[in-house]
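RECORD TYPE: inverse folding
INPUT: structure tokens
STRUCTURE:
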């Protein structure tokens, strides 16, 4: 019974304080609402950043290892890295042979600043990637439309290409 009386007394004092100084009560309530809103917004923001981070790794492939001449972290000077020898197809095939437990080992060739021509259309400054047909099984090989070239076309040396979305839109 004493607890109920104390609770009732506290509510009575709170109500009287709110009535006696309405501006103070309004500002205190506003502060609580703003604080709660900021906490909720920060939660949404962090969740969005986390989802974006996860999608980035899904594109690159979180379970993939890239072996390259260039430093992907950007920690080293490109002037030092440019003197490194390019990886060869033979080295990539040897790596594939040595790591038979790997699901995929895919050598590819990258060349920047290339021109692409089809009939009377030319696009300058493009990035060209040469990769085997197995590239379709990586996140980089995801297609929006059409088909990937086959292993048969790959072995025959047929002139087959997969274009990127931006080239397609151009």
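DESIGNED SEQUENCE:
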């Amino acid at each position: 019974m004493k607890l109920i009386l104390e609770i009732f007394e506290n509510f009575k004092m709170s109500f009287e304080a709110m009535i006696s100084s309405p501006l103070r009560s309004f500002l205190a309530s506003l502060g609580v609402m703003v604080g709660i809103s900021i906490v909720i917004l920060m939660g949404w923001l962090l969740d969005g950043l986390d989802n974006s981070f996860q999608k980035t790794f899904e594109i690159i492939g979180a379970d993939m290892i890239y072996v390259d001449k260039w430093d992907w972290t950007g920690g080293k000077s490109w002037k030092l890295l440019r003197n490194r020898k390019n990886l060869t197809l033979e080295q990539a095939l040897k790596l594939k042979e040595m790591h038979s437990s790997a699901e995929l080992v895919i050598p590819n060739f990258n060349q920047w600043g290339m021109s692409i021509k089809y009939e009377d259309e030319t696009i300058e400054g493009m990035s060209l990637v040469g990769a085997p047909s197995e590239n379709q099984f990586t996140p980089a090989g995801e297609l929006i439309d059409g088909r990937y070239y086959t292993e048969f076309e790959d072995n025959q040396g047929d002139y087959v290409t997969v274009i990127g979305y931006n080239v397609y839109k151009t």
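NOTES: The chain has a mean pLDDT of 83.
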